[in-house]
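User: Reviewer 2 asked us to show a designed sequence for the structure in our supplementary figure. I'm pasting the structure tokens here. Could you produce the per-position amino acids so we can include them in the response letter?
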């Protein structure tokens, strides 16, 4: 038997599991009408064994951000999905609406700084990668899969393997599902938390000088990154 990849190790050791992400006040039914297969797949996310439901992740994220504001400390949360996965695979497919990299050589040159930033994020922030059954395994090319528009997408598993090979571990306290960030930023709770706060800065996917320059490196790549600082 070959060596298990990092994701398979997390699952086999029962450190993490796949479960359906349900968040109070979020209704995906209208979207499912036009994207049923893809949306249904993406409702199943990676969960730590100590987290029972999506609401727990929502509460943990709120506590993390609230504590950062109260302590006047950065609270970095960085989302990772298709473009970021491509970047860390040294692929120019990372260039979508924005040109993230001029060349593969440019990615390689920037990578040491990114690795240092990821290790900072592992210790002090939250990684929010998009991980669902549709992007963690190779699917056999069959007529059935073609008709269902399924892709042989291994990008999330490859990203986790990249993290593991560079001494960045996924843990209970440094991981939050990708879509929980969306839900939190659009919630009344977050609006009330930042409403009326003076000298409060929060950035979405832009370089910001009030946090570690290492983490700023990740901000330049991720399109919706939150780092509130009082």
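Assistant: Here is a per-position design you can include in the supplement:
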């Amino acid at each position: 038997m070959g060596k298990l990849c990092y994701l398979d190790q997390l699952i086999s050791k029962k450190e993490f599991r796949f479960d359906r992400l349900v968040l109070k006040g979020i209704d995906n039914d209208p979207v499912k009408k036009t994207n049923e297969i893809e949306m249904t797949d993406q409702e199943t996310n990676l969960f730590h064994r100590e987290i029972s439901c999506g609401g727990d992740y929502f509460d943990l994220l709120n506590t993390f951000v609230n504590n950062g504001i109260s302590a006047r400390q950065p609270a970095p949360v960085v989302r990772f999905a298709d473009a970021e996965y491509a970047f860390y695979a040294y692929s120019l497919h990372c260039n979508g609406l924005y040109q993230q990299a001029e060349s593969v050589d440019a990615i390689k040159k920037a990578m040491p700084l990114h690795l240092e930033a990821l290790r900072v994020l592992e210790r002090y922030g939250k990684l929010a990668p998009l991980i669902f059954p549709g992007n963690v395994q190779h699917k056999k090319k069959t007529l059935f899969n073609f008709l269902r528009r399924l892709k042989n997408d291994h990008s999330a598993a490859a990203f986790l393997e990249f993290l593991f090979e560079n001494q960045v571990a996924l843990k209970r306290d440094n991981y939050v599902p990708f879509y929980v960030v969306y839900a939190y930023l659009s919630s009344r709770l977050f609006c009330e938390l930042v409403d009326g706060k003076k000298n409060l800065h929060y950035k979405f996917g832009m370089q910001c000088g009030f946090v570690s320059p290492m983490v700023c490196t990740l901000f330049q790549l991720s399109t919706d990154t939150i780092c509130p600082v009082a």
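For the response letter, you might also mention the following. Strands lie at 16-20, 44-48, 77-80, 126-129. The mean pLDDT is 79.
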